[in-house]
């Protein structure tokens, strides 16, 4: 392994994996950005995104450092050390989290298929489900390849989006920021809420932290995770401000903007990128559960990994078909945010910042 590749796996891969989990259905489509940041206006939304980035970096660094110290590579091991007998609380919360986010991913895939191809939404949902099953069947190596190549596509596409947006709407973006007041009101609440339910991604991606060589690696990778995950959202948010206030109510803000840029080929590319982002996010969430199962001593062959993924995905995707993207994001995410802050973020920061040594590590079966 070359030096560059080694550094990539130790320092950048965890952040790219974290980005893969949080970008999901609402971030990639712009729906989460519209829900949590646009109501605060251009400057307030930008301040909220900076706050969310700082929270992600702090908690990811603490998570990776604690996990490295106790040798945790799955969330069950991590929370048995962090919460003791209370680890079951996270198991329940994570189960709810996975159901909601997979439903969001399914709803987003369906909405994209319907808006872009004119086919029934259920077809897009099923295509995503089968894609995730295929990716997780190959275990850690396959999942890491998905994180890498989808990240390349994603950053390149968002960079092109920024160029096209500034070229076509630069004056409107500048005018929106020039006319907007300074941050005020509850902008911080939007940033904390958004960061709160997404930060669980730091635990979900623990399987890829096996490349760390030291606690310094863990902290550096965690600090980089926040900016790596938020950078595309910042680019997207800037473009969205040109269409305030109408865009705030759009189910697919990405489609709203792209249809007005006047580049049909790029429109299709961007929607394909969103589908790829849904694929990597769903892959990360389901892979974490497979790794949790594997740590109990069960041997997971490729067929078993695929079968477990399918059993999890099918009911979640059916929920998506009945509820819809906007309702899932608006209702489910806020409850999850404060639950995860209470049972994950607060105990973690207390342990890492106030204790000199990590809690005793429980024996794993």
Which term fits the overall shape? globular
Question: Which value, in Å, is the CA radius of gyration?
Answer: 20 Å
Which ranges are low-confidence, i.e. pLDDT below 50, for 5 or more consecutive residues? 358-365
- CATH overall fold name: Amino acid/polyamine transporter I
Indicate how many domains the architecture comprises: 1
User: For the residues shown, what is the average pLDDT?
Assistant: 83
Describe the main β-sheet briefly: none
CATH class category label: Mainly Alpha
- Structural class by secondary-structure content: mainly alpha
Distance between the termini: 33 Å
Number of strands: 0
- The percentage of residues in β strands lies in under 5%
Full CATH superfamily name: Amino acid/polyamine transporter I
Q: Tally the helices: what do you get?
A: 14
CATH architecture: Up-down Bundle
Helix percentage range: over 70%
What is the chain-wise order of helices and strands? HHHHHHHHHHHHHH
Oligomer class:
single chain
